[in-house]
């Protein structure tokens, strides 16, 4: 019944295994690990959802999902760092 676990996980606020090229996933995860302490310090977290056609989709959790400056964090901290390191990154989206 793994299929039902996938559906139910969307309601549990649990991170799922990211979708996309494993090498690119590892590259993005490395950047997220560098930024993660700041998210955790504020009572939140960020998880990679998918990488499709150069678009990186992340999900903000905990306090970060309700934070008024979350867009600033994603689009002025995470996205520029990803684009600086990896020329294949088109942009970042939030789920």
Structure, described:
The chain has helices at 2-12, 22-41, 70-85, and strands spanning 44-52, 55-62, 91-94. Strand 2, helix 3 and strand 3 (91-94) form a beta-alpha-beta unit. A 3-stranded mixed sheet has the order 1-2-3. Helix content is 49%, strand content 22%. The protein contains 3 helices and 3 strands. The longest helix is centred in the first third of the chain and has 20 residues, at 22-41.
Name some characteristics of this structure.
alpha+beta, globular, 95 residues, three-stranded mixed sheet, 3 helices, GMP Synthetase, Chain A, domain 3, single chain
List the helices and strands and how they pair.
Layout: H1 2-12, H2 22-41, E1 44-52, E2 55-62, H3 70-85, E3 91-94
Parallel strand pairs: 2-3
Antiparallel strand pairs: 1-2
CATH architecture: 2-Layer Sandwich
**Whole-Å distance between the termini?**
25 Å
Alpha-beta classification: alpha+beta
Instruction: Give the strand content.
Output: 15-25%
Low-confidence stretches: none
Provide a short characterization of the protein structure.
The chain contains 3 helices and 3 strands, in the order ααββαβ. By secondary structure, it is α+β, with helices and mostly antiparallel strands.
């Amino acid at each position: 019944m793994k299929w039902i676990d996938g559906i139910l996980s969307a309601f549990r606020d649990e991170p799922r295994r990211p979708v996309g090229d494993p090498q690119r996933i590892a590259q993005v995860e490395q950047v997220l690990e560098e930024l993660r302490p700041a998210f955790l310090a504020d009572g939140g977290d960020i998880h990679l959802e998918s990488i499709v056609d150069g678009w990186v989709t992340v999900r903000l959790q905990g306090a970060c999902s309700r934070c008024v400056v979350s867009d600033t964090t994603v689009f002025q901290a995470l996205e520029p760092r990803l684009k600086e390191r990896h020329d294949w990154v088109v942009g970042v989206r939030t789920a």
